[in-house]
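Structure tokens please, single chain.
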Amino acid sequence: MPTPYFEKTMKSMKLKMQALWGAFLIAPSIYAGVLYKITSNNIDPASAPANDSFVYTLVIFSIMVVILSFFLPNFITKGLLSAIKSGKLSRDENIKQLLVSIKNRQELEKLSDKEIQDLRIIYAYFISFMLKIAMAESIAIYGLVLGIINHELGIFLYFAIPSILLLVIHRPNIDRALNRMS
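Here you go.
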């Protein structure tokens, strides 16, 4: 039976992850609105449009970010997860690591070893999740930059749609992460 503090912490993490994911999911539409406002005025752009090599470079970066978003965050957190699951870390070491994020040591002391291990896994998953959504958002930002440089809304959509799809693929699911990682 999970302790009330563990349940509260789990709900809090789920809510934080859902809020962050929602904000990152809405951001490309905000970018599109800003870009539309910039491009809808009939003022000639002050700079020349981006050359093809710059556009191709950003397309290649975007493709690399998509591919890396499936592997890099998991690779980064893999070492941490193996140390957590192997039990190499003592209870005190686990609590010290969690105190970086959770300030209430008395509540942490009340948790069982399994709950502490689960919290460590959740925080490792959170790190992985943040990296994934930041990588997905960077693709939309590449499109925003190209749209501003070229003074064109259409080019932004070529970057925004894959960004949104990647965010949908990487939506947060703590329960699935705990089942997969335990």
